[in-house]
Design brief:
326 residues; binds adenosine-5'-diphosphate; Rossmann fold; binds magnesium ion; 12 helices; single chain; 33% helix
Amino acid sequence: MDPILQVKNLKVVHKNQKQDKTVLVEKVSFNLKKGEVLGFVGESGCGKTVSCLSITRLHTLNSNLSISGEIVFDNKNILDISEKGMQDIRGNRIGYVFQDPSGSLNPCFTIGNQIKEVLKAHNRLSKSSLSLTVDTLLKQVAIQDTHSIKKKYPHELSGGQAQRICLALALAGNPELLIADEPTTALDAVTRVQIIELIKHLIKENNLTVVFVSHDLELIQKLCQQVLVLYGGAVLESGFTKDIMKNPLHPYTQGLSKCTVHLDKEQQNLSSIEGTVPTPANRPKGCRFHPRCSQCFSMCREKEPPLFQLNNYRSVRCWLFEKEGF
Ligand SMILES: Nc1ncnc2c1ncn2[C@@H]1O[C@H](COP(=O)(O)OP(=O)(O)O)[C@@H](O)[C@H]1O
Ligand SMILES: [Mg+2]
């Protein structure tokens, strides 16, 4: 089966007023087949949101960003499509759940009206079938009391309800691809579990293809077949989630794995990765992770490693794997 989404060498560059260029994201490549769920994992500031926004070209609308590489969605390169053409793709074919649920709802309109507006933009429905569809959508995201929630304004919703509404809005256009950017970060632990179960259910029911973003490997493991580990704007490791969880190869992935809270295990020795993610303008020479890496050697300080392909499904950008990679 042909992939529904193929990203090749995605690069996103920011240009300031003095025309100085900073690379925000580079060397991001992946293939996603219909029905698959791919995860982006990495600490805050590693380029997850910038990569996701690129898929719908959302961040180039009002910012000095340029995207290069290829983003082939259903056999067409997103980077060659006109802005008008993109408007038809956003929402209708690619649904998006943003990182901040409350910020993506309009504070001035009731939930019922917001969902109606989005449905109207996507489909041509009569008034009666419109309210039926609003109810169907709300039920799909497991909102029981649809009548009262339709009359509420965003500030009257709990975090979990707001996230359910954002999911309903993202699904309103019946998209083939859903991008969900840290959809559970703002939620408490109990609500988080409920929303994850809901997303799992929606993926199955709607046969969705999904790009799912999280800083939490445990969550990625619950939902995604494949994972890309992003650090400092580039992919450091990629492969099947089960292989990466069983045997993380890159020292960064190993660090992330040690920081992960495993909800099903009682005794855990949690650690953290010392240091912080470099800003895009201050990435070090050599391997971008080397200043924080406990296994760093001289080569790592000098030269950036390529992505060593260990087999058809597993790659790692680390000099420790040079021999195995060739
Ligand atoms: N529009 C922008 N202009 C300039 N820099 C940006 C912009 N958006 C994001 N960045 C920078 O790009 C880096 C990656 O950001 P982001 O993709 O939001 O990280 P993540 O989602 O992994 O936390 C950060 O250092 C961030 O400050
Ligand atoms: Mg983000």
